[in-house]
Amino acid sequence: MAIPLIEKTARNFVFTVQDYSIFAWQALMNLFRPPVYWTEFLLQSDIIGVGSTTIVLLSGFFTGGVLALQSAATLSAFGATGVTGRFVSLTMIRELGPVLTGIMVSGRNASSMASELGSMVVTEQIDAMRALGVDPLRRLVTPRLYACIAMLFFLTIIADFCGILGGAFVTKFMNNLNGTQYFSEAWEFLRASDITQGLIKPLFSGFIIASVGCFNGMRTTGGTEGVGRSTIQAVVWASILIIFVDFLLTQVMLTIFR
Amino acid sequence: MNESAQSSPHGRAALADENAVVAFRSVSIEFVLPVLRDVSFSVAPGETRILLGPAGVGKSVLLKLTNGLLRPDSGDIRLFGEEIARAPEEMLFPLRTRTGMVFQEGALFDSLTIRDNVGYQLIAEHTPDEEIDHRVHESLRFVGLEETFDLFPGSLSGGMRRRVAIARALIHDPELLLYDSPTGGLDPVTSTTIIELIMKQRDVRRTPSILVTHRLQDAFTLCTHRFDPGQGRMTSLPQGQSDAGTTFLMLEEGRLIFDGSLHELVHSEIPFVREFLE
Question: What is the pLDDT averaged over residues B53-79?
Fold first, then answer.
């Protein structure tokens, strides 16, 4: 009983990965063949970028604050509270900024993409679009994909900046340490390679969020219940993939920028 | 196909017609279970084919196969003379712009206004705004809903949404119309309005079509009436007469068991057809 079930699950998983790869590749390549829906790209950039600014800003600020609180508590044991700024800025820029922004935007946008496209599938709007001679992949998926990649890049910069500010706020007003020293440490030990690492990751996260969200939405079956299922799967898989790809990228970049 | 479908004079003529708008040859498709099995028929220019059968028999699947929204597991489908069963999706988009499809629940884009829904194809083709407005007004006037131009689909009733869907399907002057249960779930008055619109399109513009329905009354109304442009409404044909260009197909458990005229349908000896009619 168990072996056929494992075989079936494994086969489904392989087919799903294959379908996802083809789907994501076609969505990416659509940018290089007309028609390209630039208006839809701008609209999605507004929804993903401007719409996510508040949550990214707040989560970045408080993450930086928590980092400053925790690190100062640990570093004080070694009399090294002065390096809090260095610790916060490096952690935010290299790791937490990109990953947290990815997770936050995934919760907000992978879910909305999956539910929006899923609803369109179950109400036959996707079929209607195809019947009207318009490619849904080109019209709906490609603009979301590139908008998400572009916006995540800028949102990560905002998260990094707010995180460092949050750390500064805690350092100055709660830990009563020297704010100038915090900024000086945060800036002086920052290398171009750190910034490069931190800004390459959101490009991958943006791709993952949009492609996983749209893929799950477009594969929706089973009416409104199916839309809910697709939404959950989109957020779960996007979050897992963001952390997994972050792990791989960190390994690769540590080797490159050693 | 069974004996009746093969032996029908109409069916033989249509199968032989190289100029058929749509031609199915031994088409089969399954989703876990078989849905359509060895289905063959064709639609001639100017012809209206009414596809009958109980719910869940594969009528909507057959319609979606016609414009390539679904692909068959075996068999050939020709649309406007082009083989589409195995054609790449990109090749199908230009072909689909030559067809109009009305979905069961209308399938209007709920985030767009009625103007943008009806003019969707024209917007995609970058037609100038003035021309889009003009043609959308013209199309909405055809279905009697010009006042809905600026509204959203959510504010329309079920019947109005179907009529808007018909306007959307007609705006590009399609060479083939596909109606998927356009009167399903509607009250008799609204159903008659929709049937009258379909008849108007058939008799005024002579557009070939496939109409899926399980409502016999709608099917018989289409056969026994014609649209009178002078009076602007449908009128009965003389007793015993029916529209020669409107013929029937019937599915039973995925097989095409009947292909013929109204006269052949009502005199058919096939048990399932008799049961369905009674």
Answer: 92
User: Does the CB of A130 have a partner CB in chain B at under 8 Å?
Assistant: yes
Task: Work out the mean pLDDT of chain B and round it to a whole number.
Answer: 88
Q: Does residue B9 or residue B127 have the better pLDDT?
A: B127
pLDDT score of B74: 94
Q: What is the pLDDT of residue B17?
A: 55
Which of A125, A130, A135 faces B109 most closely, judged by CB atoms? A125
Chain B residues with beta carbon closer than 8 angstroms to that of A123 = 105, 107, 110
- What is the percent of chain A with per-residue pLDDT over 90, rounded to a whole number? 71
Contact B103 A135 (CB under 8 A): no
Best residue of A29, A39, A122, A124 to probe chain B, by most B CBs closer than 10 Å: A124
Nearest to B120 among A120, A127, A132 (CB): A132
Residues of chain B above pLDDT 90, percent: 56
Decide: B117 and A132 in contact? Cβ < 8 Å: no
Q: Does A127 touch chain B (CB under 8 A)?
A: yes
The model's confidence at residue A190, banded by pLDDT at 50, 70 and 90, is confident
Cβ partners under 8 Å of residue A233, min gap 6? A114, A216
Size of interface A-B (CB pairs under 8 A): 53
Q: Which residues of chain B lie closer than 8 angstroms to A124, CB-CB? A: 103-105, 107
Contacts of A121 in chain B (CB under 8 A): none
Q: Between B96, B109, B178, which is nearest A133 by CB?
A: B96
Note the pLDDT tens digit of each residue in B226-272: 998 888 888 998 888 888 899 999 999 889 999 999 989 988 889 88
Percent of chain B with pLDDT over 70: 94
ipTM: 0.87
Distance from CA of B274 to the nearest CA of A (A): 33
HEC profile of chain B: CCHHHHHCHHHHHHHHCCCCCEEEEEEEEEECEEEEEEEEEEECCCCEEEEECCCCCCHHHHHHHHCCCCCCCEEEEEECCEECCCCCHHHHHHHHCCEEEECCCCCCCCCCCHHHHHCHHHHHCCCCHHHHHHHHHHHHHHCCCHHHCCCCHHHCCHHHHHHHHHHHHHCCCCCEEEEECCCCCCCHHHHHHHHHHHHHHHHHHCCCEEEECCCHHHHHHHHHEEEECCCCEEEECCCCCCCCCEEEEEEECCEEEEEECHHHHHCCCCHHHHHHHC
What does each C-alpha distance from A102 to A63, A195, A240, B91 come to in angstroms?
Answer: 14, 17, 11, 37
Arch. (CATH architecture) of B5-98+174-277: 3-Layer(aba) Sandwich (3.40)
